[in-house]
Amino acid sequence: MTTCKDCDQVIKRHGLFCSMASFACESCEADLCKACFESYPLVLLGDDDTTSNSSGNDKDRLKKARIQNFCKACFQRLSVLDFETTYDVFEPSIETSEISGVTFVFVHGGGGSRAMFRPHARELTARHGHRCILVDLPGHGSLSDVELSLDTCWQELKNVMEENKIINEEDGKRTNPEEKVVYVGGSLGAYIGFYLLEEFKGIFSSAVLMDCGQNVGPGRSLKATIGLHIYDVMCCFALQQ
Amino acid sequence: MMLDVTKKSPADQWVIESTFAAGWFFDQGKEQVSILRTIAPAKHIPELDIPICFMNGGLDHRDSEELWLNLCDTPDEVNSILKVYSGGDHFFMHDSRFVHDVLKDMHSFAVSN
Q1: How far apart (Å, rounded) are the C-alpha atoms in residues B106 and B84?
Q2: Which member of B12, B14, B31 has the closest CB to residue A149?
Q3: Does the complex come out with an ipTM higher than 0.85?
């Protein structure tokens, strides 16, 4: 009898053909049930995948890339995300660039992680000396086990801003009023941004909101309603795979 | 699911590092949709007193961007802007045709506001 490494369920094998199917982590080779086997897919960065690549040839590499399936532990070890922390900070180098006095706080889109804007943050820091902070939303990345809600998003952003001295723990006000703090949200991060920017009024100097040109909230169009429904169904389908 | 989406998109810049090598997280897709259904930008925007730079791909769904832009500023202070990257889709910020303009626009907007 074999049990799944991730969910501890007994792996049932039915019939001759099914017994030939093997679902094992492609790193540690531990047995996984079919559902868990497809829960943690990754494309591993190759030796030639320099993180500072700016030539824009990912499309070709993606054609050759192979999605590999891992157990949860190997997924967390092999992902480019560090699961020991919930956010990344890119600080300008004092030797190589001037410190601009601008801090970007990046909030990613649905289904993604703080890696979504990592290359952009790296470029903004290197080119202009901006500090960049990239957070994982609850329900995503290192916080995938945390419930996603507007309240938990607010709490996480508050924690990150306190830890990075953007706001004081005591009164929640800006620690350095001279610093420009810019909220950057993509898609889900942009829509949540409308809420967070109001909750953190007086903290952000400006905001860059991407991929939020459609009203998907109250009063949305039929087209948007259908789009949300399709997204909902696709997420359920992905989970059942 | 993400692979299928990306195959249809012209996005080609940093997509492996940003998405495929990090993993994707749809376990709480229902909660994502629930939040999206809740947020009413037209109610929040008038309460904000900061300039907003909206960035959208020209091929993405865009039925409210002009409305929201117009809600941003008072007649005395007009700093909010809308950038539409013609030919870009939902992943325009990972499209090599636009990514350097996006970075330049973000920098310019941040330092001037």
Answers
A1: 13
A2: B31
A3: yes
Task: Tell me which chain A residue has its CA closest to the CA of residue B79.
Answer: A206
Kindly give the interhelix angle for B29-38 and A222-240, rounded to the nearest 10 degrees: 160
Q: What residues in A contact B29, CB-CB < 8 Å?
A: 110-111, 231-232, 234-236, 238-239
Q: Which domain holds residue A159?
A: 81-210
Residues 62 through 81 of chain B touching chain A, CB cutoff 8 Å: 62-65, 79
Same domain? For A92 and A163 the reply is yes
CA angle at residue B92 from B86 to B98, to 5 degrees? 70
Identify each DSSP E strand in B1-113 by its residue range.
52-57, 81-85
Identify the closest residue of chain A to B102 by CA–CA distance.
A120
8 Å CB contact of B33 and A44:
no
Q: Are residues A93 and A206 in the same domain?
A: yes
Is residue A72 domain-shared with residue A87, that is, in the same domain?
no
Q: Among A26-35, A47-56, A63-72, B51-60, whose mean pLDDT is lowest? A: A47-56
Indicate whether A3 and A14 sit together in one domain.
Answer: yes
